[in-house]
């Protein structure tokens, strides 16, 4: 399994870092089998798995359940778990407790948190000093989309750009091992990756030290809105739809189950295993 130091080495060697989200054991296994460097149990699960409009409804219990499943499915891959909405804003003690739960009970190797307030910087320091690796997240931070005024490109213009660079430096100085930047201009991403020693992992941020995509967007399983920056590499939604439609037709036409899928009486058949 790759460790945080390996991601630093990869940046230094200009080897691209790959990260994909997963939310359950079978998808985690797929991501691991594809030799992706890190798995993110993202709170995007609120949208792509649970059908919410944003990530604000996601709770620590939700994250814990999904992180456990991912950890069972991918035992050889570095797993980052998102700290969900308002679980790292009350106090540092509270943040430490919640992060510890995701790591100790959930099986994550690191946690990710959004933004850069004073409390967050102190929390990054406390968590890393205690042994929990932390990934930062700047730019479009979906948990605060209401405050940001929706899902919009961030870091445009001199003022926002300077602020984001300062925040990124502070996150690095606090001990984070990597930084996700979401929906910012590529020129800003380039500047960030030159300034920071830690890897900058982009989503909707152009070329960076690595990239992250949401599993359901990547395989074409997302129903509804797919962001402009997400490249869809398959159409798994249609594959699943066709399978279920064929099953429906087979049952309606009494083609399923045929004898291959049917048990005979004990006298005629020796094996009773299913
Ligand atoms: O929750 C998530 O999937 C994320 C990525 C988009 C970075 O935070
Ligand atoms: Na997230």
UniProtKB/TrEMBL annotation:
Gene3D superfamilies found in the cross-reference section: Phosphoenolpyruvate-binding domains (3.20.20.60)
Binding note for cofactor: Binds 1 Mg(2+) ion per subunit.
Enzyme's top EC category: transferase
Keywords from the UniProt entry: Cytoplasm, Magnesium, Metal-binding, Pantothenate biosynthesis, Transferase
Active site as annotated: 182
A GO molecular-function annotation: 3-methyl-2-oxobutanoate hydroxymethyltransferase activity
Cofactor(s) recorded in Swiss-Prot or TrEMBL: Mg(2+)
Entry's localization field: Cytoplasm
Enzyme Commission code: 2.1.2.11
Catalysis: reaction(s): (6R)-5,10-methylene-5,6,7,8-tetrahydrofolate + 3-methyl-2-oxobutanoate + H2O = 2-dehydropantoate + (6S)-5,6,7,8-tetrahydrofolate
Superkingdom to which the source organism belongs: Bacteria
Chain sites annotated for binding 3-methyl-2-oxobutanoate: 43-44, 82, 112
Pathway: Cofactor biosynthesis; (R)-pantothenate biosynthesis; (R)-pantoate from 3-methyl-2-oxobutanoate: step 1/2
Keyword Magnesium carried by entry: yes
Family: Belongs to the PanB family.
Subunit structure comment from the entry: Homodecamer; pentamer of dimers.
PANTHER family: 3-METHYL-2-OXOBUTANOATE HYDROXYMETHYLTRANSFERASE
HAMAP family: PanB
Name by which UniProt lists this protein: 3-methyl-2-oxobutanoate hydroxymethyltransferase
Taxonomic source organism: Geomicrobium sediminis
Lineage, opening ranks: Bacteria, Bacillati, Bacillota, Bacilli, Bacillales
